UniProtKB/TrEMBL annotation:
The keyword RNA-binding does not apply. Homodimer. This is Asparagine--tRNA ligase. It comes from Halalkalibacter hemicellulosilyticusJCM 9152. The lineage of its organism: Bacteria, Bacillati, Bacillota, Bacilli, Bacillales. Its EC number is 6.1.1.22. Pfam families: tRNA-synt_2, tRNA_anti-codon. NCBIfam families: asnS, PRK03932.1, PRK05159.1. CDD domains: AsnRS_cyto_like_N (cd04323), AsxRS_core (cd00776). InterPro entries: Aa-tRNA-synt_II (IPR004364), aa-tRNA-synth_II (IPR006195), aa-tRNA-synth_II/BPL/LPL (IPR045864), Asn-tRNA-ligase (IPR004522), Asp/Asn-tRNA-synth_IIb (IPR002312), NA-bd_OB-fold (IPR012340), NA-bd_OB_tRNA (IPR004365). The gene is asnS.
Amino acid sequence: MKTTIKTIGKFSNKEVTIGAWLANKRSSGKIAFLQLRDGTGFIQGVVVKAEVGEELFQKAKSLTQESSLYVSGIVREDERAPSGFELTVTSIDIIHQAEGYPITPKEHGTEFLMDHRHLWLRSKRQHAVMKIRNEIIRATYEFFNDNGFVKVDPPILTGSAPEGTSELFATNYFDEEAYLSQSGQLYMEAAAMALGRVFSFGPTFRAEKSKTRRHLIEFWMIEPEMAFVQFEENLEIQEQFVSFIVKSVLANCQLELRVLGRDLDKLAKVQTPFPRITYDEAILFLTNNGFNDIKWGDDFGAPHETAIAKHYDQPVFITHYPTQLKPFYMQPDANREEVVLCADLIAPEGYGEIIGGSERIHHYELLRKNIEKHQLSNEAYQWYLQLRQYGSVPHSGFGLGLERTVAWIAGVEHVRETIPFPRLLNRLYP
């Protein structure tokens, strides 16, 4: 019976065959232990010399790291095994004998591992991170599909930028200039006026010269936009979404979280509603906790966000930022026009902002004035302005950065481990 490691528990005490790679091995004079992986999981294969004979035992001992094989054996329950099962090997068919695999069980430097990212992905730790990433993606589609959202795909090549062009990659688009998208938001607003509630899930690009553990040049964003939804309801949807994906990972990735040594109690504390503080309250908190140089109108950096997050044991919203700090499309507070109806969601444990969102301006004249104030092209944004001319309604949206969210939920320190092939300031290979 051919099966996979993930489903091997269905065949307890039966003989099965799996296609696998040898992740590692150790042996004594009478028993060889093979650490096998097949993409769905890891399992130990036990080769007992007295049961299989000299020829098969020597074949097992001669296997090299990352050789590919077909392995047959009897599935045995074993409480000590992470998956609860191991395989008593009865036969081995070598597909390809690997030689000189560069990533050995010893310690390697980060740059070496990044140069070999195409192979590093095979490790147990990276496998766990990618499985958690996949679960977050799966749960994202489930959440939005179950809540009446329609998936819409905005363009990656754009003629304008939602937040200015200073951090965009420009490219020649025949006889005009185009940019790699830093956000699909503006297009999603158009889609929301047609379909009500929509979301996109795709790659975005920021030409930001940052080397921090929170930044990537290319990353994936989940961007919902919702017609007839105002500021408070927008926050409620955000916290419901984040709570849902955390619960999904806890329910479906227990093994992977244990591999990574994640503190599950901290994730279990992620319950709605999330705490909220205003920008004003955040400034006061920071000045009372040693940040004497920060003043109203300053943006928050990583140390500020970390200090605020440490005060809570779950994600916290910081709301009502100064208008001057935020993009041109955000709706001002009707009672206080120097701040906008926006919020950043800060993850616990120092992982920083994972969501930025706001109510959008829906009055034509106010948006037109903001476009002029920010010295943006009226011509480039004419289509965006027209959304406010034909049946404009209050609407809101947000963007969640997938990689930062994976890093937080998985407990991984650097976002470079949360995407299969990271693009960093100094890295375009492999």
